Amino acid sequence: MAKRRSETKEENRGKLIAAARKAFAEKGYSAASMDELTAEAGLTRGALYHNFGDKQGLLAAVVEQIDSEMASRAQEIGARTGSDWLGLLAEGAAYIEMALDPEVQRIVLLDGPAVLGDPSKWPSQNSCLQVTKRAVERLIAQDILKPLDAEVVARLLSGAALNAALWVAASENAQDVLPKAVEAFRSLATGLLSKPL
Hints:
Blueprint: H1 5-27, H2 34-41, H3 45-52, H4 55-79, H5 84-97, H6 102-116, H7 123-141, H8 150-170, H9 174-190
Helix pairs in contact: 1-2, 1-3, 1-4, 1-6, 3-4, 4-5, 4-6, 4-7, 5-8, 5-9, 6-8, 7-8, 8-9
């Protein structure tokens, strides 16, 4: 039985994203050749254009995939704490720590903003923001955080974690910068507590 067109399209998208992810991680966005990555996927440039419009559209898809994986990983780490408050701190710290991962660093934190613009406007970042907002709402309801606007607090916390990760990724001494960034993030978040824990 022949594959349906939608299955073939989804399969081709997956192949192109996988090939691009490898090429962008190894060579960087600007040095990655569209001909090489489409050949690696066993497809043509036409398939790339059909599925993503252009190389930038392909980068956006790769960034969304990795950024979503980062968010899931951070949420898993936060869930292991067994506490909404400790989970929020752990998620932010985990996100910042992922800036040491070479693939995350190069694709999401260096090439992504340079090519796609402000990360706070990426769809994957909006998903993270909504998760953080729900956590903040729970913490406010539990009287753990000050009764502030949950969206504002979520935006500030998400922005702090993102900017700390961007700083770590761009730093010449990421290993030295990382603990400072995590400590500052935790200190900022602690300032939102309604009373000391």
